[in-house]
Amino acid sequence: MTDHSSAATPSNVNGRQAATLEFRNVTKRYAGQDEPAVDGLSLEIPAGEICVLVGPSGCGKTTAMRMVNRMIDITDGDIVLDGESVKDRPPAQLRREIGYAIQQIGLFPHLSVADNIATVPRLLGWDKQRISERVDELLHLVSLDPAETRDRYPAQLSGGQRQRIGVARALAVDPPLMLMDEPFGAIDPINRERLQNEFLRLQQAIRKTIVFVTHDIDEAIKMGDRIAVLQKGGKLAQFASPAELLMYPASKFVEDFVGADRALKRLALQRVRDIDLWKVATVRIGEPVFEAHAKLADADLDIALLVDDNGRPQGWLSNGAFTGERVEQKLRSPAEPSVELDDILRDALADLLTSDTRYGPVVDDSGRVAGVLSLEVIGRFLHQAPTEARTGADLVEP
Amino acid sequence: MASALGAQPFAQDAPEDFFGKRATGCVQEEGFCPDWIADNYDRYLDPFFQHVILTVVPVAIGFAIAFTLALIAHRRRWLIGPVAGFTGALYTIPSVAFFFLLQPLTGLGRTTAIVALTCYTLLIIFRNVITGLNAVPEEAKDAARGMGLTDRQLLWRVELPLALPEVLAGLRIATTTTVGLAALAFLAGGGGLGAELDAQKYFKSNVAVAGGLCILLAAVLDVIILAFQRLVTQWQRAAAA
User: Fold this and answer.
1) pLDDT over 80 (residue A398)
2) What confidence tens digit (pLDDT) does each residue in B177-234 have?
3) Range of the domain at B220
4) Cβ–Cβ contacts within 10 Å for residue A166, how many?
5) Are B145 and A95 in contact (CB < 8 Å)?
6) How far off is chain B from A103, nearest CA to CA, in Å?
7) Closest CA to B162 of B98, B235, B221, B93
8) Which of A346, A384, B176, B190 could disulfide-link to B110, CB 3.0 to 4.6 Å?
9) What is the pLDDT of residues B63-114, one digit of tens each?
């Protein structure tokens, strides 16, 4: 889908899907203000990554973003898009090649959804047929029904639908770079989460370079491949992957900003399959007791898990199950909570905390036991350095 | 040339015209006489069309001037105060005084009336265009600029369409006001229904027909602009539904 559209877009910078973006010692000073709004910001953003600019209000994150498409003039330093300084480009032309989505969305109330999305294609002189096809394609892409949506006016849509149209409009000419300023900020928490997941899924398909501004550290951790934490006066406090940021905050400011619960936040970045689970003795009814004892000796847990013929957990066996020659069905407790390998660690931890036991069997896609997750396992994991820079994007179901 | 049209003060001749040979009791009593109206409606046709011209021409010229001024002042905000002040000052000049003031320049006649009436439309139209442009949501403008619209494209594709309801509302007020003010154009020798009204201001039939035509004209013009407004601002009603 994206291949088709990018091939059909002559306006792309060299026809590439994503551009590299570099801030070189960028400073913005407003006349009459002592402190610069952005102070010597240097960032390198590889093509196809989401870079989140995050920080408290007044930290210059929006200013930094708006200098990329020259909505704000750069006082000092340079911003280089795909090897070319943005200062060398006429602003209007530059902006047509950069997707732009803002919190207030800014849909044109007097234009239908289709006409809103067609704004930049029209500026670039696409023909009607091509625009119409592209509009339908984009509406599909943001999970809206073209037949139902295209002729509606923005005021006839829900907040979530408007947000999707805003993203579709920003993507209209398949720009190699997107600027998004708190794009989900005005949405209620439940829909925000959905839109975030949808967008991450979309990003897996389109692989744009994205500059994403937010004040919400949780959103930053979820959305970012890299996070630039800015502090008051427009200074860069840290530029790192989400996991690094949580594990090794570079300063007291970053530590405070990511929050006292940063250990918990790290759990939100990891799936159960990412950590070393406890080995468990899985036993079937009628199995020789000595074999079960051998398994127990080899396991991390001194009780055995009863499984059915397909390896699915049935419950924890009591000592009474091993009194004969063969294992009998005598359970001490049910096999709960049941956790899946693909569960996010934070959710799995929540399951453990709300159950009676402090451990639970983990099953794979087919329901077979893959190990046991316990509070201890999670605790041990939190003391380890991040082996791999996991990001929120990896955690969204494809 | 303009003075030939309406400057003739026919007030003295009018009684004969009006009461003539077919004067009935009703007419003699200067009452409301449907028969007389049915027989004499054609005498109002010319004044009516004069009145249409006295309304449409000033509104059209006034709109062109005020709209242009508003577009200029929209980009050079410091101009808004002076322009609003100047057009506001024009608006406060009593029409009779205005006609007198203009006489040395334009003489007596329709031109004088049109110039004065045009001046009265400026304030309303200018203010409404400015108000309409100011009411355009900031985020729509920001998104438009961020997507690469030039200032001119922003104005014509986003700002003006969104200001249109307010602009047309101003046009409606200006038009109805001008229909009323044009009834005084005869004082400048501009003719119109006002001349008919003035000629026999105690004759109820005359006042009813001439006054009624003024109201009718105002209503019709208003409906025309309203219809146009509804046609071009469907998005507003879609939003309300």
Assistant:
1) no
2) 999 998 888 888 888 888 888 888 888 888 888 889 999 999 999 999 999 999 888 8
3) 46-234
4) 25
5) yes
6) 9
7) B235
8) B190
9) 999 999 999 999 999 999 999 999 999 999 998 888 888 888 888 888 889 9
pTM over 0.80: no
Nearest-CA residue of chain B relative to A181?
Answer: B143
- The number of distinct structural domains making up chain B is 1
Place of tokens 């007030």: B11
Contacts of B162 in chain A (CB under 8 A): 108-110
* Residue at B32 is within a domain: no
Q: What percent of chain B has pLDDT over 90?
A: 53
A251-278 confidence digits (pLDDT tens): 999 999 988 888 888 888 888 888 889 9
Residue B99 maps to a domain: yes
Identify whether A337 is preceded by a cis peptide bond (ω within 30 of 0).
Answer: yes
Name the 3-class secondary structure at A290: helix
CATH code, domain carrying B138: 1.10.3720.10
Residue B57 forms part of a structural domain:
yes
Residues of A in contact with B168 (CB under 8 A): none
Q: Which residue in B133, B138, B147 has the most chain A C-beta atoms within 10 A of its own C-beta, making it the best mutation to test that interface?
A: B147
Cβ–Cβ pairs < 8 A, chains A and B: 82
The answer to whether B233 contacts A94, with C-beta atoms less than 8 Å apart, is no
Please choose, from the candidates A109, A279, A105, the residue with its C-alpha nearest in 3D space to the C-alpha of residue B159: A109
Asked whether the predicted pLDDT for residue A309 surpasses 60, the reply is yes
C-alpha–C-alpha distance, residues A195 and A198, integer Å? 5
Could you give the angle at which helices A159-170 and A128-141 cross, rounded to 10 degrees? 130
Q: In CATH, which of 2.102.10.10, 2.50.20.10, 3.10.20.80, 3.40.50.300 is domain A2-259?
A: 3.40.50.300
From A127, A123, A128, select the one nearest A175 (Cα to Cα): A123
Q: Does A123 touch chain B (CB under 8 A)?
A: yes
Check CB contact of A156 with chain B, cutoff 8 Å.
yes
End-to-end CA distance of chain A: 16
Helix or strand (DSSP H, E) at A257: helix A252-258
CB pair distance less than 8 Å for A119 and B147: yes
Q: Is residue B10 part of a domain?
A: no
What was the pLDDT predicted at B24? 63
Domain ranges of chain A: 2-259, 272-382
What are the residues facing A240 on neighbouring strands?
A227
Q: Indicate whether A9 pLDDT > 50.
A: no
Residue type, A107: L
Which ipTM score applies to this complex? 0.78
Enumerate the residues of chain B whose CB falls inside 8 A of the CB of residue A165: none
- Do A120 and B238 lie within an 8 Å CB cutoff? no
Show residues of chain A in contact with B239, CB under 8 Å. 109, 153-156
CA distances from A180 to A53, A99, A170, B170 (A): 10, 8, 9, 38
User: A112 to chain B: nearest residue by CA?
Assistant: B235
Question: Which among A92, A100, A110 has CB closest to B143?
Answer: A100
How close does chain B come to A1, measured CA to CA in Å?
A: 23
Q: Which among B138, B148, B241 has the least Cβ separation from residue A95?
A: B148
Name the class of domain A272-382.
alpha beta
Mean pLDDT estimate for chain B: 86
Can you point out the beta strands (E) in A103-161? none
Residue B39: both structure tokens together: 């027989």
Instruction: Find, in chain A, the residue whose alpha carbon is nearest to that of B137.
Output: A106
